[in-house]
Amino acid sequence: MFDITEKDILFKVQKYELHRTDIHFCIDILETIAGSSGHKFQAIPGDGIKIATNKDFLGFGDTANAALEDCLSKTKNKAAKTIQDNFCDRPTVEFLKDISKLV
To answer: Which pTM value belongs to this model?
Structure first.
């Protein structure tokens, strides 16, 4: 359907912003459109430039809402510094494939 290599993953991305009293960050919802990522939906918090790569903050689900809820529940009681300290550079395809093995 889409002209990508067998190693590529094509995502449709939705963006949310969570504003708390001590921090605000984005949550990207990645829906796998083509290729294999292991999960239909992934929720990844970040600051717009960097993302959290710690599995303790990533959300997964069969729907966008389920992945978002999973991510929100994992970040709900975490200190702002704890979340920010886990942000790093944008993910590679290898990272996105690896996180599918986390759940």
So the answer is: 0.81
